[in-house]
Amino acid sequence: MFVSILSNNIGIYWVGLEATTLATALLIAFYRSKESYEASWKYVIMCSTGITIGLFAIVIMYYATVGVYGESLRSLSFVDILMVAEKLDKKLLFLSFLLALVGFGTKAGLAPMHNWLPDAHSQAPSPISALLSGVLLNTALLGVVRFYQINRKAGIDYASDFLLFFGLLTLLLSSLIMLKQSEYKRLFAYSSMENIGFISLGLSVGGFAAFGALLHILFHALSKGVLFMAAGNVLSLLHKRKMDEVKGLYKSMKGTAFILTFGLASISGFPPFSTFLSKMYTVVGIVQKSPSLGVLVLLSLSLAFAGIFYQVLPMLFGEGDKKEEKVHPFMLLLPAFILMVLVILTFLLPKGIVQKVWNAVLEVS
């Protein structure tokens, strides 16, 4: 993931992203159950297919840039491509963006290419689920954003309509599905899908919405890590995946219950959590562009909010199950506590970081 994110070369980016597929497939199947094998197999097939489509996007981009830079590494350099984007064939650029949107969007969890996501996130060990949700989805989304930025630089404004459509579809679909989930880890997986749709939507709108979306990438990653670590604590002690089988966590597992409540408040955007700020900026930017679209987004966010609280709150209250003492509390609480501290540190971001994010928005827009 570090190789993909830090690379300026879109070919190296693809290599790193493909390597994450091979590595995480084994991690998803870690428990060696029928469900984990099925989730791992689905993950490999769907994400490999998506990344192959993404490779075609890179090949077409190279074909468009090789006429300017020749057969050199500069033809795959993201910075160099941006410098000459206005001189490139717009049809080829737009075709490469569509392939990247479908290909890398598959691994990012965009609907309707998302079927692998709830299975993989629910079956993987919880620390791996936190990495998948908070980091790997954003790593895949980076590929979409880079091709989108190249298209916008070339003056292909209608590329934003396609990103907006997939983002809105993902947000609406995941919000509705969250209302009917029975397993808490699958619920959190669909919450990740909802946030990816929300981020994509903000990036497509630009301005304040893109500013909020870029901030939300970081805030969501930390908050979802807290939720999955709390879910891992529940699963490791009670060995139950169904939400209706888990009751009274505040009586039996007070520390985990507090962590879960903290994560719920953060991911839902309660003030003073930083997600409140990122969601507010994004929604304000969307409303400025289209009030009707803003209403639709607010409705989707409300459904997601209702779904996650309606499902999880019964787990926290009532008569608790007897707690098992096989795992030391230090091992359960410390990782989540570190993530909680990081969430709290985002309450006040340094001015320099905020300015860099805004500069990135100006580059994309």
Structure description:
The mean pLDDT is 91. The two termini are 26 Å apart. The longest helix has 36 residues, at 34-69. The chain has two domains: 1-156, no CATH class; 158-365, no CATH class. Helices cover 78% and strands 0% of the residues. The protein is an all-alpha fold and 365 residues long. It has helices spanning 2-6, 10-28, 34-69, 78-83, 90-108, 116-123, 126-153, 159-178, 184-205, 208-238, 249-252, 254-268, 274-289, 291-316, 329-345, 351-364.
Tell me the total number of β-strands. 0
Please summarize the sheet with the most strands. none
Give the topology string: H per helix, E per strand: HHHHHHHHHHHHHHHH
Task: Indicate how many domains the architecture comprises.
Answer: 2
C-alpha-based Rg, rounded = 21 Å
